[in-house]
Amino acid sequence: xxxxxxxxxxxxxxxxxxxxxxxxxxxxxxxxxxxxxxxxxxxxxxxxxxxxxxxxxxxxxxxxxxxxxxxxxxxxxxxxxxxxxxxxxxxxxxxxxxxxxxxxxxxxxxxxxxxxxxxxxxxxxxxxxxxxxxxxxxxxxxxxxxxxxxxxxxxxxxxxxxxxxxxxxxxxxxxxxxxxxxxxxxxxxxxxxxxxxxxxxxxxxxxxxxxxxxxxxxxxxxxxxxxxxxxxxxxxxxxxxxxxxxxxxxxxxxxxxxxxxxxxxxxxxxxxxxxxxxxxxxxxxxxxxxxxxxxxxxxxxxxxxxxxxxxxxxxxxxxxxxxxxxxxxxxxxxxxxxxxxxxxxxxxxxxxxxxxxxxxxxxxxxxxxxxxxxxxxxxxxxxxxxxxxxxxxxxxxxxxxxxxxxxxxxxxxxxxxx
Length: 418
Known about the structure:
alpha/beta, Alkaline Phosphatase, subunit A, 13 helices
């Protein structure tokens, strides 16, 4: 990954659309926020009428569209959107090497002169979360007691009161450090596969014409705020790497610290670079092409946004310095310039009332711009049918009708009732 960074443009303020797998992955394949796509949580299906990037590029360009590995977009069969090289595996330790090698083999054996879009879904370091499951835990692996001298420290923002609740209630300090250790080792594992793919691209006959993109669908709290996993709107889960490289065309080794970028910008960027029309009805994405090409004076967004339905319905709003998290339960505000670990909530500080007010006005504008997905008329019947089929397939609608309370909250925001 360091090699990719040295070769490309790194967007240092990139956020996800929503810090959970399916919502985020649906967003970067469609350019739609979670509230628009129907994928409000991991088990909720992508709306049938929304095209994904594979379908769109196939329809509007002569590109071959190819995929290997993790897809995880509910109820959208990847084989209807892409040519699939390898289906991937639910554990990165088992499947990431096979996925990367499938992409490598396809590149090195390719003879066609047609342009291509190759999507590789690597899984790790996602598997760190298994240690927090009931059947997992810090002592799932035998070597836990043999690496005590190698364990990393807890983050400065570790909150022991939060850590002492729920699935981590009986974890010791060493347990927490072991969790972080595993996350870092799994990052090293996926780093090797990224290197394998990057080398394959640059060794291929297509190297001079191929843009390499490295991104992640979300992060993990790994002890920040005393939490593990994802889903909440802290930066540990919401801020992700995004590096785009094309030697000879884009700057090498440039860090973009200025522009607020979202993963929903990826499909807009790909369509722009491929000469395809923009995906339909996507109001929020912006093509990164002018930023990659180093154009000056590019008009850009003043705020970026992420959403979550885990806990209270919430929206995070970033400007270049401050971040707010506004929900049905209230608001939090952080000065990320002085408090990057989000430890001091300024929402009730009169000196920052104007900042929070500015963020609230942007949230109202945002709520009015997006077309919020509505519960289907047969929602109750769908939920009941899903309950009858549990165990036979992956569960849908696991939390019932969450569409209606989400739409109600957004409608109230847009109208000024909240």
